[in-house]
Amino acid sequence: MASIRGAAARLPLVLLLLVAVLAGAAPTASAEARRVDGAVPATRDGGPLVLVGIPGLLWRDVTPEATPTLWDLAGRTSIGNVSIRTATSRTCPTDGWLSVSAGQRALSERERFTVCEPAPKPERVGSGARIPRFDTYVRRNARSVFAAPVGMLGQAVRDAGGTTLAVGPGAVLGAADRSGAVDHYLYEPGGLTRERLQEASLAVVELPGLTRLYPDPPSPGAGTGEEEDDEVEVRTEPDDVPEWERAVALAAIDDRVRALTAILPEGASLMVVGVSMDSGPSELTAAMWGRVTGRGVSGPADFLASESTRRPGLVALTDTTPTVLAELGVDPPAPTGGRRWHTTGRPSATEAAVDKLVSFNTAATVVGASLPGFYSGLVTFQLLIYAAAAYALHRYSDGLPTRRALVLTVTRIVALAGAAFPVASYLANLVPWWASSLPFLALLVCVLAADALVVAAAVAGPWRRSVLGPMTVVAGTTTAVLFLDLCFGARLQMNSPTGYSPIVAGRFYGIGNIAFATFATGMLMAVAGISHELITRDRRRAAVAATLAIGVATVLIVGWPGLGTDFGGVIALVPGLAVTAMMIAGVRITAVRLAAVGAAAVVAISTLAWLDLQRPPAERSHVGAFADQVLSGEAGTVLSRKLSAMLGTFGNWQLTLLAACALVFLFAVLNRPTNWRIGALQRAYEYAPTLRAGLTGSLVTALVGFAANDSGVAIPAIALTVAVPLTLSACVWALQRGDRTPPEAREPAGTARRT
User: Fold this and answer.
1) Which among 189, 455, 548, 618 counts the fewest CB atoms within 10 Å?
2) Mean pLDDT for the stretch of residues 557-579
3) 289-324 pLDDT per residue, tens
4) Angstrom distance (rounded) from CA 319 to CA 629
5) What backbone torsions phi and psi does residue 447 show, to the nearest 5 degrees?
6) How many Å apart are CA 639 and CA 236, to the nearest integer?
7) In terms of DSSP H, where are the helices of 178-263?
8) What is the Cα–Cα distance from 12 to 70, expressed in whole angstroms?
9) What is residue 26's three-state secondary structure?
10) Residue 205, beta-bridge partner list
C-alpha cells in the first residue's frame, strides 16, 4: 500500500502535465485538416445552389483529355474525395440520393433487382413532380439504425420559403420534401435554362451516364426536358455499361457539365458530387465546390475537408446536406450525420492535387481488397505459431539438447514476429507503397520488412538475455508508434489493414477499435516488462509509478477529443490498467476495489465528454456527440446500432476461431507440465511475476472492450494476437534458462531473478 500511496502522491502532477501536453496537441493533431484557408462564403448573392450528382465519378476519370471541363473546374475550385458509405455496404444511386436528402446514412428497398434498383419514376404535379409511395422510404429509414430523416433537405428549403428544382429521377429523391415532392421537375438537363435556374433556391441535377445499375430509361423528349409517351417499354433488368463505353459516357457528362456551367447565373454556387458507385467495388468518388463569378466558376483552389473526417481532401457524402443548407442560410430541422465542408491547402498544380486524391483512393481500394486475405493470413499465421509451438514444446521436452535449443530459439523469434505483425502494418504506411505499379505487393513487402525490423531490434540488443527484454521491445514499439501516430493525426492508421478505411467509413480519425486492442495490449505488456526490470532492482515504487504514468497517458490520449476520441476505449482500458497496477504493487484485488475502478472509468470518460461538450456542436468529436445524445435522450439509436454490430461479429468465424485458439494455447498448452513437472507459463511467471500482471490486465481490457465496442470479438482476437505470442516468447526464455541450469540449482517459485 505504501507503494500505491507514493505513486498516488505524484499522480496529480503527472496528470496536470499530461493534460497540458494533450490540450496543446489536440489542435495540432488535425490542424492541417481543420485549417480554413479560404472557405467559400456562406452567404449567397441571389443565385441558386446547384448540386450536380454524378454516380460513379472518380478522380482517375478526370483528365485534361477525357474531361476538359471537369479538369478545368478541378483547377479553379475546391476538390476532394467523397466517402459514400451509407446504411449498407453497397451505396446504390438511390441510397446515395436518399442520404443527401436525409443528411444521414440512408438506404432504399431492394425489391426487383439483385444489386440495385433505379430511382422510381416521378409523377407529374403541375411543373413539379412527386415520388410515388415516398412514405415507404421515410418510414423504412426512420426505423433503421441511423434513423435517417428522409425528405429533410427539401422540406427545410421549402419551410424557409425556398423552391426546389430537380433534374432526373434520382435528383427528385435528393431534393424532395417529406411528401416526396419538388416544386419544379425536368427529366433531363437539356431543358435547363438560366431563367429556370434563377427561379429555384436549390437545383439538383442528376447525370447518371456512368452508372451500370440503372435499366435503360425511356427516351426523353428531344431538347424539351419532358418524357415521351408513358407506354414506352422499359426493361426491368439492368444492362452493364461495357468498359469501352466509359470514355464515351464521360465525354457526354463533361459536355453536360460544360453546358450547365455556361447558363449558371452569377452568384450561384456549384457543387459536383459523386453520390454513389456503379456495379464495381466501392471507391471514393469525386467532389468539387465553387461559386459563379464574372470569371466563371472559381475557387478557392483548395482541398475540401470537414469535421466529419478531419482529413484534408476527404469529406463524407452526408456532409453534402449541411453544406447545402449552410449555403442557403437554412438551419437543419434535425441533427445530421455530416458536417459542413470547409477548405484547406493543396498543391498549387492541378495535376499534383488530383494525383494526391487518386493515390489516396488507390490506397483505400487496395487495403479494402486485401482485407479478407490479410486477416485470413493473420489468422493462419497465428494458428501455425500455436501449432508449431505446441509441437515443439512436446516433441523436444526431453533430450536432443542441440536441436531443442535451435527449435526454441526459432520459436521465440517467430513468436515475436507474430506479435509485431499489427504494428508492422502501421509502420508500412511510412512508405508510399500506393504509388507503386503493384501496390498490393508493395504493401505486403512493406509490412514484412517492418515486422523484420521490429524483431531484429528485439533480439539484437543486450535485453535479449532478459526474460521479458525482447517482449518489452516489441510491446514498447507498438505503444510508441500508435501514441505518436495519434499525436500527429493518426496518419498511419488510415488505409492500414489493421486501421480504418474511408470506404468502410466506420471512423475517419482517432483510434480505431482494432488499433485500440493493439495499443492497449502493447502498453500493458510493455509496463509489465519495464516493471520487471525495476522490481529486480528493488524499485517497486518506481515500477508502480511508471505503470501509472504510462497508463494514464495512454488513457488520456485514447479518450481525448481530437486525438484518440474513443469512448469505449477508456471504459475498457481503465479496468485493465488498474488490475495490472495493483498486481505490480502487490495489492490484493477485491470486489470493492474493482467497483472503485469501474467508477473511475465512468468519471474519466464523463470528464472527457464534458470537455468536448464545451466546443461548438459542429466541432465536437464522437465523444461529445454521444454525450449530447445521452443528455437529449437520443442515445438509444446509437447504442442499439453498436449492440447489433457487436453481436454480429460472432459471424466472423476467423476472428472467433483465432480468439478461441489463442485462449486454448495460453491456458492449456503453455500451462501443460513439461519435463520439470511445471507448465512453461508458470515457469515464466517465476522468473518474471509482472508478466502475470500484464497478461491479466490485457485479458481484462479485451473482455471489457468486447462488451463496450461495436467491433465485438475483434477486440479480444487482436489483443490475444499481441499478448499470447509475447507471452510465448517469455515462456521459451524460461525453458531455455532451465536447460542451462542444473536441476539442483534451480530457484524455487517466486525467487527467480533476471540474469
Assistant:
1) 618
2) 87
3) 999 988 889 879 999 999 999 999 999 999 999 999
4) 19
5) -65, -45
6) 39
7) 194-198, 246-263
8) 57
9) helix
10) 52, 167
Phi, psi of 188 (to 5 degrees): -145, 160
Q: Who's near 295: CB < 8 A, 6+ residues apart? A: none
User: Is the distance from CB of 310 to CB of 508 less than 8 angstroms?
Assistant: yes
Each residue's pLDDT tens digit, 510-523: 998 899 999 999 99
Longest CA–CA separation in the chain, Å: 100
Kindly tell me the number of DSSP H helices and DSSP E strands found in the chain.
Answer: 24, 14
Measure Cα distances from 744 to 8, 146, 260, 400, 738 in Å. 43, 67, 91, 21, 11
The residues that bridge with 165 in the sheet, in sequence order, are 184, 203
Residue 733 or residue 356, greater confidence? 356
Cα 230 to Cα 33, 121, 128, 219, 362, distances in angstroms: 50, 10, 17, 10, 43
Bond into 300 cis (ω within 30)? yes
- DSSP code at position 167: E
User: How far apart are the C-alpha atoms of 416 and 451, rounded to whole Å?
Assistant: 9
pLDDT confidence of 755, banded at 50, 70, 90? very low
Cell numbers representing residue 437 in the block: 505499379
Single-letter amino acid, residue 374: F
Q: How many residues does the chain have?
A: 755
Burial class (CB in 10 A: 0-12, 13-18, 19+), 495: buried
Top mean-pLDDT range of 27-36, 536-545, 644-653 = 536-545
Burial of 68 (0-12, 13-18, 19+ CB in 10 A): middle
Q: What's the one-letter identity of residue 705? A: G
Q: Count other C-beta atoms under 10 Å from residue 468's C-beta.
A: 29
Q: Tell me, what's the pLDDT at 25?
A: 40
CA dist 662 and 681 (Å) reads 14
Question: One-letter amino acid identity for 327?
Answer: E
683 touches 547 (CB < 8 A): no
For 362, list phi and psi in degrees, rounded to 5.
Answer: -60, -45
Question: Would you say 499 and 508 are in contact if contact means Cβ atoms under 8 Å apart?
Answer: no
For 514, the grid coordinates are: 482494432
Q: How far is 52 from 54, CA to CA, in rounded Å? A: 6
Residue carrying the nine cell digits 489542435 = 27
* Spatial distance between the Cα atoms of 703 and 658, rounded to a whole number of angstroms: 15
Q: What pLDDT is recorded for position 314?
A: 97
- Mean pLDDT lowest for which of 75-79, 345-349, 402-406, 449-453? 402-406
In tens, the pLDDT along 170-225 reads 999 999 999 999 999 999 898 899 999 999 999 999 998 887 644 444 443 444 34
pLDDT value of position 144: 85
Residue 591: per-residue pLDDT: 85
Q: Are 315 and 275 in contact (CB under 8 A)?
A: no
CB atoms closer than 10 angstroms to residue 42: 12
Q: At what angle do helices 93-102 and 134-142 cross, to 10 degrees?
A: 70
Give residue 47's identity as a one-letter amino acid code: G
Q: Any residues with CB less than 8 A from the CB of 450 and at least 6 apart, and which?
A: 423, 424, 425, 427, 428, 430
Helix axes 714-740, 690-708, angle to 10 degrees: 170
Burial class (CB in 10 A: 0-12, 13-18, 19+), 470: buried
Beta bridge partners of residue 311, listed in sequence order: 314
Question: Is the distance from CB of 165 to CB of 202 less than 8 angstroms?
Answer: yes
Who wins on pLDDT, 71 or 679? Answer: 71
Nearest 5°: phi and psi at 111? Answer: -120, -50
